[in-house]
Specification:
Oligomer: homodimer
Strand content of chain A: 5-15%
CATH superfamily of the largest domain in chain A: Response regulator
CATH architecture of the largest domain in chain A: 3-Layer(aba) Sandwich
Structural class of chain A: alpha/beta
Radius of gyration of chain A: 26 Å
CATH class of the largest domain in chain A: Alpha Beta
Strand order of the largest sheet of chain A: 2-1-3-4-5-11
Largest sheet of chain A: 6 strands, parallel
Number of helices of chain A: 12
Shape of chain A: elongated
Helix content of chain A: 40-55%
Number of strands of chain A: 12
Number of domains of chain A: 3
Chain lengths: 348, 348
DNA sequence: CTGTTAGCGCTTTCAG
DNA sequence: CTGAAAGCGCTAACAG
C-alpha cells in the first residue's frame, strides 16, 4: 500500500507538471494557472500526499513553524492553563508547540532547551525553573531565536518578559482587607526564595504601610505553594500569640488549604477569618463561592505571551520588550456573606 | 556574531577532518579514533554547533524523535497530569513532545493531527475528542505511525489503546457504599454520550445488582464534568422525592462540586452524605481528607501510554495492543469519621 | 579508521 | 506561467 513516501515529484508526474509548479501550488502562489492548481490539488488529495516541513525548512531560510514552551510545573493548573492559552494562538497561527515540563529541574530545562534548539524552534516561551540564569539563554538569543519569559523574570537576560504586577496586586488585596477592618493580616504560603514571593511580599508591606498598619515578621508564614502547604501555614499561623483575623495567601492552592485548615478548626472561611488567594485557577471553575481572590488569568497570560512571541518572530529581529502588569489582576470577593463584590483592573 | 548557521562541514574544516567523520562522532559511532573524537567534540563546543535534526531526518529513514500528544481538555488536571506522565518517559527517551489541546473540537483535532503529520511525528498518543471516528486515524496508521489511544476508546480503530477499567472501578465503589449500608445511591455528573460515562454507569448498575439494590433511573443525574456541574447535580438530586444518601460522582471535579453543594445545605460530606469521586487529581494534592475516591493515577497512565508507544516505535511494526484495567484503580476513603480505609488494585 | 560521492524532499533563481 | 538545475545539512555506502 504505502511504497515509500509520496513526494512532490510523484505528484508532479501524476499531474503532468513539474516539481516547481507543485511547489508553487503548495505555497498558494498566485503565479499559477487556476486550472493547473486545481489539477495539482486533486492529485495531492488522491495520492494522500503529506507536506514535508523538515525538507522545506531545510531549504528555505524561513522558520520551522514550531514554537517551544517550557514550564516548571505543568501539574499546577496555573501552568496548564497558561499552556492552553499559548496553544490557542500558536495553533491559529499555524504553528505547533513543543511542550516540556521541567519540574523545577534546571538540568532538565537545559536538556529540553537544547533539544528544542536541535529541532529548530522558531521561538520559545518559558517559565524558568528556579535557579535559571541569564546565561542559559545566551545561545538562544545569539542565534536570533526570540524568547519570552513568563511568570518569573530573570534579571540580566536580554529577552522579553511578560509578568503580572504582583506587587500592586498584593497591595490592593491588603487594602481590601484593611478596608474591612482587619488589623492583623497574615501572609501565608510560598517559597521565600522566589522573585514572585518577594514581589507579593513587597506589595503586602506596601499595603500595610498605606493602611497605616504595622509590619510583623511573625505574620509571614512560608510553606509549599500547595493545598497541603496552606493547611500547614494556617496551622502555624494559629499558634501565634496575637492571632491574625485575615490572610493573604501566596496562591489559590494555598488559599484552599487555608480554608481546609480553618474548617478543620470549625471556623468558616470568609465569616470567621478572611482569606484572599492569589491566582484564580481552581476558583474559576467553582460555582460555589469559596474565597476572595486576586486573579491573574493564566490563560490570558499564555495568549499574550504567545502573541508577543509571534510579533517578535514576524518582526525578524525585535528588541526585547518587558511587560509588567499586562495581565488583568482582579480582586474578586466571593467569600463570606457580609462582604460586597469589588473588582478592579490594573492598567494595561 | 552569528554569520549563518555553523554546519558539519565547518566543524570538519576546523577540526581538519572530513564531514563523515564528524557525522560519525555525532552519532557516537565506535569506528572513530578517540583522539579524533575528542578534537571534533572540542571544535563542536567552540563553534557552538547545533545538530540539525531536520536535515538528519530528511536523509535517514529513521524517526524524527518527536512524538505527538493530543488531549481533549488540558484545562482538566487529569489531562495535564497525563501529559506530565507522557513527558517524563518521552524526555528520558531523548524525544520531545508536540502537545496540542483540542478542547473537544473535532476540527481542531483534525488540523492538529495533520500538522503533526507534516512535522513527521514518529508516534501519537491521543485522548480523542468526542465524536472522533476510526477513519480519522486511517492515514496515520496507513503511513505506519503508531498511535495509542488513551482514556477514551474508538471502536474499530486499528490502533493500541490504554484504558482504565471504569466499569469494574464503578462497581467496586458501589459495593463499598452498599457495604456502608447505603441503599439510595446516586450517580452524579458527566456527559451521558461518552464511552467513559457509559462504562462507569454500567459498573454502577453492576454494583447495584451485586448488592441486591434496585436501579432507579431518577438517581442518574448528568451534568458537566466540572466542579460547577457537581453543584448543579447535587442540587437536582436533592429534589428527588426519596433522597439518596450517597453518590458516586463521575469524576473528582464533580465530587468537589457535590461537596460544595452539600456544605451549602449545611450537610457534612462523608458524615451526612457519602461521596465517592472517580479520578484522583485534586485530591492527591490535598492534605485534608475530603472525600473517598476511585483513583486512576493519570500520570501513571501517561507513563504507560508513552512506554507502550515507545515499544511500538522501536519494534517497527507492532500489532495494536489493547490494554484495559492496566491502571491502578484505588478506592481511597478519606472522608467521614465513621469509615475505614480500603484499597484494592486491579489486575495488571 | 577516514575521505568521496550521492542523494533525502523541498524551494528557488533563472531561463524558456 | 512553467521547466531545469542547484543546493539546504546531513547520512550512507563504498572506496582508500
Amino acid at each position: 500500500m504505502s511504497k515509500g513516501r509520496v513526494t512532490v515529484v510523484d505528484i508532479a508526474h501524476a499531474a503532468g507538471v513539474s516539481k516547481s509548479t507543485v511547489s508553487l501550488v503548495l505555497q498558494g502562489s498566485p503565479l499559477v494557472n487556476e486550472a493547473t492548481r486545481a489539477k495539482v490539488n486533486a492529485v495531492i488529495r488522491d495520492l494522500g500526499y503529506v507536506y514535508n516541513r523538515a525538507a522545506a525548512n531545510l531549504r528555505q531560510t524561513a522558520s520551522s513553524k514550531i514554537i517551544g514552551i517550557v514550564v516548571n510545573d505543568l501539574t499546577n493548573s496555573f501552568f496548564a492553563e497558561l499552556a492552553v492559552g499559548v496553544d490557542m494562538v500558536v495553533q491559529s497561527a499555524g504553528y505547533v508547540q513543543f511542550l516540556s515540563n521541567t519540574g523545577e529541574s534546571i538540568d532538565r530545562q537545559r536538556e529540553v532547551i537544547a533539544s528544542m534548539r536541535e529541532h529548530g524552534i522558531s521561538g520559545l516561551i518559558i517559565s524558568p525553573a528556579r535557579g535559571t540564569e541569564a546565561a542559559d539563554f545566551k545561545p538562544l538569543v545569539a542565534s536570533g531565536i526570540p524568547v519570552v519569559l513568563t511568570v518569573r523574570n530573570i534579571s540580566g537576560a536580554k529577552v522579553s518578559s511578560l509578568l503580572s504586577d504582583n506587587r500592586m496586586g498584593a497591595a490592593q488585596a491588603v487594602a481590601h482587607l484593611a478596608g474591612l477592618g482587619h488589623r492583623r493580616i497574615a501572609f501565608l504560603g510560598g517559597f521565600p526564595d522566589t522573585a514572585v514571593f518577594e514581589d507579593r511580599l513587597k506589595g503586602f508591606r506596601d499595603g500595610l504601610a498605606a493602611a497605616g498598619l504595622p509590619f510583623a515578621e511573625e505574620l509571614i508564614v512560608g510553606s509549599a505553594p500547595s493545598r497541603a502547604g496552606g493547611v500547614e501555614a494556617i496551622e502555624r499561623a494559629m499558634l501565634i500569640a496575637e492571632r491574625p483575623t485575615a490572610a493573604l495567601c501566596f496562591n489559590d492552592a494555598v488559599a484552599f488549604g487555608v480554608c481546609d485548615g480553618l474548617r478543620a478548626r470549625r471556623m468558616e472561611p470568609g465569616a470567621d477569618f478572611a482569606v484572599i488567594g492569589f491566582d484564580d485557577v481552581i476558583e474559576a471553575k467553582t460555582a460555589v463561592p469559596a474565597l476572595t481572590t486576586v486573579n491573574v488569568d493564566p490563560q490570558g497570560m499564555g495568549r499574550r505571551a504567545a502573541q508577543l512571541l509571534m510579533k517578535q518572530i514576524n518582526a525578524g529581529k525585535a528588541e526585547p520588550e518587558a511587560i509588567v502588569g499586562a495581565v488583568r489582576l482582579v480582586v474578586r470577593q466571593s467569600c463570606g456573606a457580609g462582604m460586597k463584590n469589588q473588582q478592579w483592573r490594573n492598567a494595561v
